[in-house]
Amino acid sequence: MKLKRLVIVIAFVAMIGALLQGCGNGNKEGNSSPSASAPASPSASAPAESSEPPSEQNVTLKVWGDLGNQAVLEEPFKKINAAFAAKYPNIKLEYDFAQNDQSLNVALQANELPDLFWVQGDKTSKMAEMVKNGFLKDLTSYNLDLSRFADSEKTYCTIDGKVYCSLPSFFDTNVVYYNKDLYEKNGIKSPTNWDEFVQGLETLKAAGVTPIALAGKSEWDRAWPVFALAPAFANAQLKAAQSGDGKMTDPAIADMLQSFRDFADKGYFGKDFLAQDYAAAQFAFTNGKAAGIIDGTWANATYVDSGMNLGRFSIPNKDGKKIVQSSYSNFMTYAVSANSKYPDQAVKYIEFLNSLEAQQILEDAIGLVPTLKDIVAKDEGVKELAVFDEAGVNIYSVLTALSTPESNAADVLMKDVIPKLMTSAITGAEGAATLDKAAKYPTK
């Protein structure tokens, strides 16, 4: 029985290792934690006995923050954690930006998860797999106040009718950030349709300005144009593929992938984009070498802080409609380890992250797109981020839904199709065929 249990856990960890590639909001790779002891399944661990009520005990909670977004999140979480400490002086937080794909994988293998760590809800299948294998604390019995949240936000954190994390309160998507001074100098306005968008890129290229800075070396950041183009070109077709009513070989999907290759072929990403990392791409944009960059709304503060005359727009499709990738931000969605010695205190942190107080701190610091009406937008720039006609699909989530343990279609997009499109090794139609082959469609 012990051998069988070990085999099951090792199989689970291998699967999680394949899945944990990050999603949506720019989770970059960083230093992983050192390897630990042999894998083990979670087991109940009772807190030390105390004559004090659990809520009054002086305890220390270990919390892992998002290492890939430390530069953006460090200052607001200092304020969030200070506000929490003022409210609960008996609970000390050891908050470290220690979590990335590798460190979480090691913690799962060693059964050494921190008390709290961030999760991505239903954006991928990761949280559901951790729930299935007993790694997360069911929060349902704590009767969290979820009255401010919409059903879709509750669904984000719910597995089989049970709640497993703090709820999202901000919207993520990808937009074109652009240098207004460079656009005006070259007689370009924020585009109202696809043809105007492409013509503007052509004008910039002719003027010797890189139209769009792209981090060709970075697996996730080089994918943001595809994430932005997918709903603009093929929202209905991707929905149909996910439901089993269509295929990834639909001409609209192939056309979308081809447009990404065309941007590379025509030089819209510049000459050296394949060797460029995320920091270099951002610097090219902020120092005026590139007129624009396609990035997430989560990076808004970085570009605001650069001091440039900044503009933002969502990519319009051929009919002039702006359909954007929709995704909830996971900046404040944290789960409690099933093995935490202090689950009651850990839930207090979950409750605080669900509060307007914590959410407004994050908004004031970063300027995200709020989904809750009582969060006050930081400035007019945040309102500009929210100018679109429709919230569409997330292509990564669609392909995740079409994946199996044997064939990860989302991984094929990121590691195979996008790199080959950038280097003109395949056409859009060939890329679509590759995704179709990797996909497992639901049976009707």
UniProtKB/TrEMBL annotation:
Keyword Cell membrane attributed: yes
One Pfam family in the UniProt entry: SBP_bac_1
Region (Disordered): 27-58
Composition bias, Low complexity: 32-56
Lipoprotein keyword on record: yes
UniProt keyword terms in alphabetical order: Cell membrane, Lipoprotein, Membrane, Palmitate, Signal
Protein name in the entry: Extracellular solute-binding protein
Organism: Cohnella herbarum
